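1st attempt posting a full record on here, be nice pls
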Amino acid sequence: MLAGISGASAHVEATPDKTAANSYALLSFAIPHGCEHSGTTKMTITLPAELNDAQPTANPNWTAAKVTEQLPEPKRLADGSSITKRTSQIVYTAKAPLNPELRDVLVLSVKLPDTPGKTLYFPTLQDCEQGQTKWTDIPQEGQDEESLKSPAPSVTVTEAVAGADGHGAATDAHGAEHAGSVAGAAQAAAANDGGGQLRSWAALVAGVGGLGLGGLALARSRKPAPAGVPADGPARPE
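the predicted structure (as tokens):
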């Protein structure tokens, strides 16, 4: 059992921060070791045909470059536009060989396709100072991925989240700023300073209410006295 765990942890794997269809995701590719104890010098990640592009995240230990390919025929996108080229690979080159005793993580930003249940494979070539390892094995239908010697990193797309467009987190974070009511503004203020501005709003409302009550009382005090009754009140008996 321990040997199985060790072998599984040695694979290059892709870990997504989200998997919902049609969403933007960050895929983290872990480099757990070198090639037979030789330092890693380059990682070439091949994108599946379902993806048109990927944005590599800067890593101070590596340089990153995109490799594009010409499509055999124009590909029509969901927005009605067409493309004739796509990004087929992302190549990370180490500024210095990665010590086989250390690990690193390379991150790509991608837009997942609208294909729930689809597993995307990212065949990856790991070049080292001496030798290379091909993480390119893709299971055949019905084959257990765990049985593969050098499985390609993979991500399985799940059902889309209702109302999400890939940027939902940013929208939610700023939603309070667009509140169109006093209550909404007060809640936003409370969220920003822990309740101090909310108390200010409450004080302002109370102050306005106090002024209104004071004005009403003053108006009542100036109401004309009934006929025969002095303005300073009924006459006292002698």
